[in-house]
BTB domain-containing protein
Amino acid sequence: MASGGDGNDVARAQSITSDRFCAQDADVTFESCDHVLFRVHRKNLEITSEGFSPPSGTITSNDSVQLSERAEILDLLFQYTYPQRPPDLTLIRFEVFADLAEAAEKYQMFGAMEICRMAMKAAYNDHSFEVLLYSTRHGYPELMTLAQGRALELSTADAFRLFPPTCYIAYTRYQAQWTEIVKFASNRIQATPPCEYHTNYVLGFYKRLIANPALLLDLDTLLAGSSSGCLNRACSAPTMREAMEKKIRNMKSFGSFL
């Protein structure tokens, strides 16, 4: 946060004041990146947030604190600083909610953080990748476990770009477990005496796995195509599935590597 000064007079003159946060007795003013002023009460910030409250005496009611968030996000966020019913997050687009969740974490607004965490959990089925990134950035092991399967869809380069350093290391260790599962299945297939069904089964297995590594989470699809007429029981989908599931059950979660 950076305090506004004389150099911001022109921008301040072009600013408008929030319809919701415009109290005459407000003693702190924040300005969004799209030049909307939010007049709020210092005492409320001190009670509800660790990262928002400026030191006493450093800012007068005539000064404004410049924030990087847009007005749409701050209008939601500041509602958590007052004793009122919080905004209904089911009524806003996920992209807006995700930005709100990041702002709550940034400014350590604890009430908003907890509500956003629960809402992220509810959004897991539709936005599992976003939930994975959110949980790794902010340290929510339960959400990591829910969404960890999406890590299989990331390339190493994308993971390096998207994850913080400690989470990237966790990603490589988590990913290595799945690599071992693939090696296990590959060795088992190669050690099986060939039969008339074997070649097509092997080719199908590798083709599907290369196209989508996340199929390791859907063994029915990954192992589809093996024939019940195969003379080698080890080549059949039920046997392979049972062996792979046993390995998968013993794997460590993504969050355990952090």
